Structure formats: C-alpha cells, structure tokens
Amino acid sequence: MRRKEKDNVFGMGSRAPIAISLLVKNPAAAQHGQILWHDIGDYLDREQKLNIIFNLGSVAGITAANLWQEITPDEHGDWVKQRDEGAADFIVMGAKKSNEVALFANYSRGLQTGRDAWCVNSSRTKLVGNMQRMICFYSSEVARLELACIGQDKASRTTVVNGLINTDPTQISWSANLKQDLVRGKRFDYEQVALTPSLYRPFTKQWMYYSRAFNERVYQMPQLFPDSQSSNKVICVSGKGEKVAFSTLICDAIPGLHMVDIDGSQCFPLYLYDDEDSKTTNQPQQDSLFDSQEQETVTMVGRKRRDSITNEGLVYFYTAYPGEAITKEDVFYYVYGLLHSPDYRERFADNLSKELPRIPCVKGAVNFWHFSKAGRDLSELHLNYESVPMYTGAKVDTGGKTLAGSDYRVEKMKYGKTKVQDDKTGKLKSVDDKSVLIYNDRITVTGIPLEAYDYVVNGKAALDWVVERQCEKTEKDSGIVNDANDWAIETMNNPRYPLELFLRVVTVSLETMKIVKALPVLDI
Q1: Residues of 249-261 as b/e, b for ≥16 C-beta within 10 angstroms?
Q2: What is the pLDDT of residues 290-341, one digit of tens each?
Q3: What CA–CA distance (Å, rounded) separates 206 from 201?
Q4: Which of 111, 114, 113, 98 is nearest to 356 (CA)?
C-alpha cells in the first residue's frame, strides 16, 4: 500500500492522505446529494501528483476532461472502497452491540495500561521497583489531597484535583481513572501477583503489571486472562480502520493494546473464564446435536473455564460440512488459517478496514481441514517463536573472536547499507541492505534471505519488529529505562537471546510464508 501511494504532496515526512473537497450548496439543483469523485491515480511520486493538479487547473478541468465518477453511497454510508455485501452472509467473529449470531461468545481489546513506561518493562526487577515507587507516591498524594480538602465532598475535590496534584512525570503518570480513585481516597498496595508476561508487540515479550487499579482499560481481558496462572490462546486481529493493512497474530500471553494494530487490537480467545457465581450468557443448553461435542467446562479455584466458540458457531460449520467430526478447537484454528489467506484479505479488504472479520465456510470439507491444519501449524510457529530452530543459512560474523556473554549486549540493531541509483536525480543514494544486520559493533549477520521480510504483521515485517524492539530505550518523560537485554538475562538466562530471536524469527517468517502460499484458493 505504501508503494502504491508513493510520495506525499507535502514531502516524504508526511503519510497523511490528501483530498481536495468542495461542498456545493445549491437549493435550485435538480439533484441533491450528488457526489462526484476523481482519483488522480496510484504509484505516482510527488511531482507527478502536483503536475496533474497543475494541468487540470481547476475543478472545471476535471469536468472538461470528463473525469468525474459519480458515487452512490452504500447502506453503510461508504463512498469509496465499498464493502463486499456478500460478506453479510458470513458469521461475524464477535457481536457485542447487536443480537447477531457470533462465532465467539466474547472478545476484548488489547490491554491499555495508560502508563506503559511504568507498567511494562523487559526487566521484572525494574518493573517491581517502578511500580512500588509510583504506588508509594500515589499514596502520598492521597494523603496530601485529604489534608487539603478536609470537609469537602467528592464534587468539590473533583474540581480542584488538577490544581493540587503533583504531576512530576518522574514520579507518576496520571490518567482519568487514577485521578478519580485519588478523589475517592482509594489506596492501593503493591501486588506481586500482578506481575505477568505480556506480548507487547509482535514477537516482543515484556513483563507487565496487570492491575485494574493501574491499568487504565482492561476491557474484557479478565475473562481471557483472569490472572498470571490462567492459560489461553488468543487470536488478535486488526481493529477497525486501515492505517495499516489487516493482520492477525496468535498469542498465549496478555496482548498489549497495539500488538497488531496501532488503533487497538481485537482479541478472540480459545477459552473464557467465569467466576463460579457468574451466569453464562449466549451459551444455550447442550442438546443431542452436541452429544459428541460436549461444552468443555473446567472448574478452577474460584472460576470456571469454558469454550469461547459458541454452540451456534459450531452449528454454522456442522451445517456446512455434514458428518464431519468438527470440534470447537478445529473451528478456532480454521479461523486463524483463513485470516492468513491472501485471497480472503484481498477480496474483503474494504470490509476488514471497517468492521470485524466475518468468517465464511469454504467449499468442501477437504478445504476446511486444510485451513484448520494450516491454522494449527501457524499457531505452533507463532506461539513458540522463542524456541523454533534458528535460521542456519545466515552467517554470524564475530570478526574471528570468541565472544563472552557481555559481547551479545544490544543497544540498537540496524541494517547494512548499499548504494543504488536515484530514479529522479540519477545520483547514487544509500538505502538499507536488509540481507545484512549490524547487531552491534562486534557482531554482523549476513546472508539474511530477503523473502523473510514478506511476512508482515501490524504494518511491518516481523523481522523489523525484532530490530526495532530489541534495544535499550529511555522514556523521555519518566526517565525509565527499558532494556531488552534485561529480558534476555533475567527471564531467558541467555545474553544471546536478542541475536537468537532474530534468527528464529527468520525461520518463523519463511515457514509462515510457505504455509500461507500453500493455502487453497478461496472458494466460498
């Protein structure tokens, strides 16, 4: 898509789409609400775009050249990139605001801490220290506000809280919810059980402080991961919007809000966890149809675990493939396989940019099982990315030196450089050579297959996420350091982890694309 759009008219520093819009008010017009549209074309650089505007001269130039396209908005109000209405016949993955039959009983946005610098860190030890320090400071602010507002009611305290609190970003990160708790005089203790691994970005695990008190929005996440001891698998998909192309990634740890989408990931679980005294909704009683497919309910301490795929969703597939012994887990992996289909993503791109995915039944049980098996294989790769074999086709050059653990410390990886001729100026310019990775000043990796960069999630190649996130970074406001080497040493007990992760994700990328390319043609 970036290549298709090419240069922005305001220069390469901007990625904002540009439209010239004219609203014409004419009560005497024979036709009201008429929409005329002209798209100047794709794969154009800045000069070409501006020349087109220059040559048209004015709106009259578009009319004279007979370039207008008349648009009739569809039932959703879409003008361009209108949805494929055939998708309305498919079952939707989730439906919270309608009575529509859904495939999953519940889903959640990725967890939003509202203060990532404090609540997320590669180092478990540093995370503990950061949270203890912030909670202690918060408690002192509660006490200070109480003294300053003796005798005042909640409404009065609310009006003055912004002027009284200490907003020093090196001590705390305030948010709307935390201010409300402050006004109410709520106090919180540090909780060791709140520490849990999370998948913060693609192929990037971090420690998280998982707490309703200090996470701004947990959404439905407690039903997916009620605590650090509860296991689950979650298919995360892009939320509504098209800042990046649709993508999906499975995880078995709490996903961060922006894990697969900068506007917020939507996460669909294999299981849901309910408190024992809670009522199960959207799950009708089992009947003879499900005698061989009983709803799995596992009783745990204080809660019950059940399948997230609904009974109605299973019937949807039973009806399409009579006689097939399909389980809810088979359906879960079918969804993951189907969402990787290039045919599906291309055909329903305009739907996926505006609404949650709808899942069709492909023709023939053979194809169903192919997608389901592909989904299982992909999940094995994507869940176990830290242990898949490292790619052996690349050469790790250490300059002939035997390295110690400290030599594997990474501060900021970068790609090699090569010279190419500029199409516009004819001069040589320097561009990234992604077959070469400069890991640090002691280690260089060469022979990286360029086809590995074809595997893209959340708008970037999976390998680009590794390069971006395996680094040492200091958050500007708080001064908190987040050092990927801490995860390597403290959690993985392996100072070589960042380098090995890159080589493992090369394998993941290549094997993912093999599976994707072998998927059947989408025949619905």
Answers
A1: bbbbbbbbbbbbb
A2: 444 445 556 555 689 999 999 999 999 999 999 999 999 999 999 999 999 9
A3: 9
A4: 98
As beta bridge partners, residue 416 has: 433
pTM score, whole prediction: 0.89
DSSP lists the bridge partners of residue 460 as 457
User: pLDDT, tens digit, for every residue of 29-76?
Assistant: 998 889 999 999 988 888 999 999 999 999 999 999 999 999 999 888
Sequential DSSP letters for 267-290: EEESEEEEETTSPP-S-PPP-GGG
DSSP 142-189: HHHHHHHTTT--HHHHHHHHHHHS---TTT----HHHHHHHHHT----
- Residues ≥6 apart with Cβ < 8 Å to 115: 134, 173, 175, 214, 216
* Helices assigned H by DSSP within 384-496: 462-469, 484-486
Radius of gyration of the CA atoms of the chain, in A: 27
Q: Where are the beta strands (DSSP E) in 335-413?
A: 358-359, 395-397
The Cα–Cα gap between 282 and 111 comes to 24
How many whole angstroms from its chain centre is CA 58?
Answer: 42
